[in-house]
Write a structure and sequence with these properties.
Number of strands: 6
Order of helices and strands: HEHHEEHEHHEHE
Helix content: 25-40%
Strand content: 15-25%
Oligomer: single chain
Number of helices: 7
Largest sheet: 6 strands, parallel
Shape: globular
Radius of gyration: 15 Å
Distance between the termini: 17 Å
Mean pLDDT: 95
Length: 171
Amino acid sequence: MFVNLNGMALKNLLANSLWIIVDPWKNQEKRYPRFVPVHFVPGDLNAWNKTVGDKIISYLPSMQHVIVYTDEKNTAPEELQHLDFVLHLPTELARDSIDHYMKQNNLRSIIYCGFHEQECIIQRYCGYGNMQVHYECYICEDLVCPYPYHNWQVVVEKQRASEDYKYIRLP
């Protein structure tokens, strides 16, 4: 569900949260060819992802606390290489790294962006589903990309309406 925050509350949330950019692969089709939707032709999935990836990169200067959560550092775009990275494996180390960052910076909230909204952002070990037990978690609608499998619009619509997930929009 979308959380309605007044201007100051949203500004404080955006400034005082850890932004986690999930799986910003520069070439997902090459890295994971078996996950390319069957109705896509070569290049479609990377183009689909690039639209949101470019938005994330353009919003990056506004993110005060940010990490990239992915499988390998060299799979992310060059514009993200200077950021802190937390790798998926080993899972316990990933979680410990995020907990340490949160404590070190006195943060209580996480804002997720990246790929893919109804998949890795929710289901990864350090994704929304597991981390919401420990932190106040949000998904930034403007900076997430849904995974375009068959009927994805219905799944995303239900997820965004569900009280299980908190969504925010950028001002």
